[in-house]
């Protein structure tokens, strides 16, 4: 036995020794495919197969020959490249049976003469990392004839585009899409992605766009916008192109759009018009963040402003369509930009006008959890809304000399809206006894005006790295609204069928709100060494706001002219802010590190005109920040950041305005609130391997708020609540999200596969009838992505996976709403003879039962179309489309917040069939665009 073991060990040792001593050779001769001439100095790289690390490198001799010796045993990749020729890539092994790998003649094909039937073994780098920018190469992806930028971006790893055109990259929403680094129709990314042609694109860049001042200094100021920049090919910057589409369908559905673009020299002129009621065009999702406003606004230095939607405001609408209701939209715009004077001056102008009408119905079921019981509320609501808005923005930049630049931005918005709704509510206890019911109707007309001007001057001083920049801005907003509230609420004693108290409101509400704000920021950068830079800043801002809100009761003669002092107020707000900050930035080799903090002192005064009383406050905001980045190599990067800031109480929390719109909830102010402090940690890692087309990304964040401001709600046995905001000591409100993606091309089946994992969790607190309640909301999901493309045959893409949602409230053990869900999407197109194309897509959604909601929700939305192409370039198309073929598109939503569980169903767009004709036209670079 011992002899056997000894012999075996000797054999293994000898085998490993011989294996280690194996020395292989690879050789060949590199020539041109057509004329067979030698390609002298062609680069020859030997890469280790498992990780693409360079092992050896040489260049071809005068006769094109090359030879690499002393290659140890293993698996390798040979990469041969030569300027203007397609790369040659092949994988081979060196072992005891193969010591010499002789390729003979390796014929490279000229890219300009490369024909579709020539097969080259090779991959093109789909993406690369340049500092903070992830750059995608369209040539590495499949581009269908007449495809749009949206169709190209859908193929990028780590980026998703939903059915409305909303772009999500690495778990974050992309809110801005630029063309050659310039604004193109401002704030609606879909006007770029759905209209520009994919074959015009040279590269697409993804990055966090910094403020102009931060971009100049190179130091992060915390103001970032997830941005895509579409860079056009040089030969596609002269000519014109556009698209016209018209369609009509069943149930009175229709759509139409037209867009024309004229590019010449360094000028771009574009105009578009869109109309329809399908919810798929003309509803720029990006507008919501631009125009939607909360009940207050807080700047990054701690300033507070009145808004046009305080908590006494009647239902106001921001013009956003989110799938709820039936929309009718009409919108149009014009864009122009130009550079002149040797690119020292540039201008960018956008004008947009739009009108949207929205109508529908909504039903809500709500479980309000108390300490020992629950109240069940139902409501039925119908609504009609309309908004018209005009927006103009202009950007002008001039480089006065090589060191001094001035940039001016001006924009104005005029918005008018009107809305009306009718709602019926009912509240019952756990035994089904009625506690309250109400009937309410509201109408509201709003007229908003906004004007902003911003100027930035930047100066580079004599010493390299020493700069001075000054940013000045002025903003003015004005909002007027006029609306009517008619409400009747009845309250019941349990087990009694007749109400024992009734509250009636019949009022005219007139609001006039305005804000004026000035802000300045001066930044000085000083290089302390080759690697270290100090950034000092001083900022001053001053603002003044007025909010005159009046409620009028109906007088005996039927006019609304009796002022109700309880629900009327006239506030004035003045504040000044002084800010100082110091940031240190270290940059050397592969490392970028910055740290520092800003401090702002705020003087705040609120004056009540009606009562001739004032409220004053002074406080200090503290905003530390840390940023770290390490570039392992060109396509591998790690980033980490921390930001902290003091969060001051809002006006509505300190001294809310009397509110009688919701008679079931009264809010009481708390002037003794202390500020909370928010901490935000963020990190991401990204890597990409060219030869295997493999990508891996992880990004996430963790937030916790110390001394958070939470609600304290007292609810009686009839469902009436009184709320007040208080600070929570010794506990922190926390949240996190984590998102990971991995994908690669599987050569055996010629398919790209990927997996995605995501998790997020929020832990919040509130007091319910003096007891502390902890609410946990979290979701965990897994999805598998598969895609395959065969040129002129078919295109297939699918993504699907399960999800688990958690919603619990500690106040009531019967309040858990935990349950499984499943989501899946697919889309595919098949090319048929006679220039026919069939395409189909679908979305499946499943939400399982929970402890609170004992019913499942399931729907499968299936769309399909058949298209006939005409003309030589297939740019005239006639289509028949069926949307929601199974008629299952039911509006549905579940939420959980502060111990309450809510489920909503609402009117939405359902099945229709449409006949449409579309024509893409183009003449760029002196001729018709040729299809790939």
UniProtKB/TrEMBL annotation:
A Pfam family this chain is assigned to: OMP_b-brl_3
Record GO terms (molecular function): carboxypeptidase activity
Biased composition regions of type Polar residues, renumbered to the chain: 430-444
Signal sequence residues: 1-20
Ranges for domain Outer membrane protein beta-barrel: 460-919
Top-level taxonomic group: Bacteria
Keywords: Carboxypeptidase, Hydrolase, Protease, Signal
Region annotation (Disordered) ranges: 419-446
Matching InterPro entries: OMP_b-brl_3
Keyword Mitochondrion belongs to the record: no
Protein name: Carboxypeptidase family protein
